[in-house]
Hints:
Layout: E1 2-11, E2 14-17, E3 31-35, H1 42-54, E4 71-76, E5 81-85, E6 88-89, E7 96-99, H2 101-106, E8 111-114, H3 128-161, H4 170-215, E9 219-227, E10 234-243, E11 246-248, H5 250-254, H6 267-284, E12 292-296, H7 304-320, E13 323-328, H8 331-340, E14 347-354, E15 357-362, H9 365-369, H10 372-386, H11 392-396, H12 399-410, H13 421-430, H14 444-455, H15 471-487
Parallel strand pairs: 3-13, 3-14, 7-12, 12-13
Antiparallel strand pairs: 1-2, 1-4, 4-5, 5-6, 8-10, 9-10, 10-11, 14-15
Amino acid sequence: xxEKILSIKxxxxxxDLKKGSTDWDFVFKKTNVIYxxxxxxxxxxxxxLKSLCDNSxxxxxKSFGSEESSEIxxxxxxxKKFIYRKGKWNRNHKKVEIFNSFYLxxxxxxISIEDRISELNIFEMSMPDQARxxxxxxxxxxxxxxxxxxxxxxxxxxxxxxxKDINKDSVMTRLQAERDxxxxxLEQKKAERTRFLSESIDLYISNINRYLSSFSNDLxxxxxxxxxxxxxxxxRLIYGIKINNHEIHFTERESATGHSxxxxxxxxxxxxxxxxxxxxxxxIVPNPEEYIVVVDDPFTSFDTHRKQTTITQLVRVANKVxxxxxxxxxxxxANDFCNALYSDIPLKLQITRQGSSYIIQNYDFKNAxxxxxxRDIKTLNDxxxxxxxxxxxxxxxxxRPCIEGVFRLKYFSLVKEGDWLGDFIKMIRDxxxxxxxxRLKMYVPQIEELNDYSKIYHHSNPNYMDVMLDxxxxxxxxxxxxxxxxxx
Length: 488
């Protein structure tokens, strides 16, 4: 896992990430939620962690105008450093899974699963010994077939140069027979491997449909075909799908006159499919506690139901993987996800601009979402707790809106549009004994004092910026305001 950031230099938005410029200590937790508006560097973080896994180049993301390569230093939980310098890492973390816009683009119309020569794919990991034997036999047959094709080709060229009849040459006939026999054996072996993988792939498809059913009643994978591209490091699954009770089988999709999913799938459907593929993949990987999972903006075009389902499923991921990073531009989603976690306290961060560069700092999502009255009351209460850490003018401006806001909420049936604090005071003075405002008569002097004090600093006073604020007097008036709110 990634324990902490040691330094990030000349990488995209982060010219030189330093501890002194932020209140965050650069130490990650098991679950980390990073909020930032679009264009602030979220995707750069996900690409950095992807590169840490597969050593893909991130030089295109180096800071604009920088002549030197990006330099990144991370500390693993094994207390060893991951260092990216001069275009490569000193070591890799092989178990990093990324869900981002690139994953979505690659996994909507077909499902791509890595299948590298040097590593078992996720469908083979449950039976590694048999999988390795298949790979060994396939590699040997592929090697022998390559040799046989070369021999047949060379023989053919030789006969042509000697102007001899190829069809009457016994050596050529034998070489062609050997080549064709090896090609047949290779196809048979590939078919055996496909059958070997089918059980795990069927389970994977079943898991996909389970997730799809939670996102939508109208989506279901109905059939699939396994394709092993010759010049690729991935297995492709071409699938058939049921959409709104209409079935499109993979055979129709392969046909030149068949149906194209891009005309049938909404943007929300595409996101639901790609996310279901990703979640189902995390269900079949062995030892998920060894994985770092990075989810970069997990939805676009999702309605409220699908967003809540996404949160529910990502909480499941958070509980079973070694480390989770969620990057999002949606502050409400970030807050709701953190509130849904029940077995972990997440790290809450924000990427924000500071000068010409960007920093990562602690961020209270819940507090940032406060609006109106709730925000103003918190401002007053925080001032009593933090004092000089806050802007005095921001505090004094909250006094009158807080009194007015609580009054509007509690006495909503008595307040008219356009009534303000002066009107409320008059209403209390004129209140009859049967009025719910009658009991507030004893507080009129206190309300008037707060009104007179705060309006000096209100923007309606043309000289409000020239009036000096006394911190001691402000503290007294803030405390009086909060006490008044309790009794209104």
